[in-house]
Design brief:
Strand content: under 5%
Distance between the termini: 140 Å
Number of helices: 10
Order of helices and strands: HHHHHHHHHH
Radius of gyration: 48 Å
Region (Disordered): 47-70
Shape: rod-shaped
Structural class: mainly alpha
Number of strands: 0
Amino acid sequence: MTTQRDEEKRRLREAREQLEAAKSVISELEGPRIRLRISRRKLARQKATQSEAAGAQAQAVDVSDLGTEPQDPVRKVLRVGEKPRLPEPSEVKRIYEEMPSLDQVAQALGRDRRAAAKALAAAGIDIKEDIAKQWDSGSSLRELHKRHGPGCDTISRWIKSTGREVQPRNANRQCDEALVVETYLKTRSANRCALAAGVSWEKARNILRKRGVWEK
């Protein structure tokens, strides 16, 4: 009899332990779900409260002045390939006085030589006449070429366009011949070589033949 009671107590104790274990598992599984439902409800209530507050604020706003605030100025952006505007003639003149070079003025203005010459003309500076005056002051064609950029033949033609004569400045024949060859290698034109060195076309051709660069 005692043995039977002990067995029943043991089985009852085991059943209670299993029940407690099951309750613990249920609590662990249901806990997060309950908390999630509570959090969702709280979030929904908060959103509803915020919406009501925003609606009330919108009703209280005076809309009579809407659109009267100045807009931010739009920055002007240059289009692709668009060149910046030229400065005032006085500024162009100042640039040339600081950098007396056609090439340097063209670079400063962001233009080619022709446009730079036009800008200088608008500023009251005749680049051809100015180069001719530099020639009168003793500058050679090579020096003027290095200073301003155009080839010696172009410099010579510009000087002649002002009514001046261009004669070889260097008595050294070797230097004159070097100028003829240098101009020919750049232009492939005997006429331009003769113009740059201030000699006849025949003489320029003979120099080129003697130097072995004449191709015709």
